[in-house]
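Quick one: structure for this chain?
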Amino acid sequence: MLKLKHHTLFSLLAISAAALFIGCQEDLDIADFADEYGEYQSELRIEAILDVVDPMSSIVRVDRSILVTDTAIFNGRDDDGDWYAPYDDVGEDGMRADNEFLDPDEGEGNGRPDPGEPHVDEIDEILPLIHDSTLTVVLNDLTANRSYEFTWATHADSFTVEWDIVEGGGIVVTEEVEYIEMVTYGAYKPVAFDDTIALDHEYQFVLTDGDRTITGPVQPLPPPVFESEDSLMVGDTLHVIADSLQWFTWTIVPEATVFWVLVEQIHGPDSVETITSHPSAPLEQRPDGTRVGRDFLSIYFPGLYRWTISVPSRAYGAYVYSQLPLRDEQVSNFRDQDGNVVLGIAGSAADASQYVRILPP
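Got it. Here's what it folds into:
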């Protein structure tokens, strides 16, 4: 099974476009419907995120939409040479048969890569083929009348892909192991930022594609503020007893209605394990309008952890968490010079982290 781990909101951007194209079932041959899309025109899908805390980590991804019948991209081959028979020779259903429950399917155990198998038409083969690196991208500070240039970077960022694989040749299951692969992707990155992001300023991403100008507004929100009342702070680390039933809280501004929670356990300087990564919403709102997020510490084992909370701008939060179509004007805020909706989102994200040491009872 393929599982995608996302550690921040940004990593959602890394996989969202490709997931639209590779998440179909194989019960029907999609090529049977090719005639219905003969007039299909590829279009841009843009995700431009301003990093409030570290502006140089801002990123603009531009991809072109494709059809799942595009055999130039979905060619059924292992183009980057990472298919490995002992793990990946599982046939077109992507599952290894065992002698008790499943019979081998077409292509399983034949010693060569076939469509449907791991590392065939995988995400790191698809992403470079859908990127568009030909646009001019700038971020305008409309309040201060300043502009920041972005430039294309082939390896702009990365995310991890986790595979559950089986050791042992042929169709005999001997041991299931976990394999984590790093995938890089291209995007536009800032050339330079000589100032901090002003929360009271209005920003706008501007992308030029030939004669077409596409704009997306951004109203940044601040990062969360962690609270540590009735808890012991040692240096930069909050100490909490596992069974004390204390609550670990953070506050966000009233305009922020959602956030992302990442919890990592720190085993050593070079050993960090993701415990949970999930969206969440404030649990309460105080009389002054401040919203409060919480996490219950007693469910974690003793050890050193790091909580990272990411607060998206309002438009970005709606885009990530809503189930509305991408063309819905309440979700996609990019427009071209004629007012037409362009797929994607312009938004901001602000992260804050807190180390927490959970002590034995």
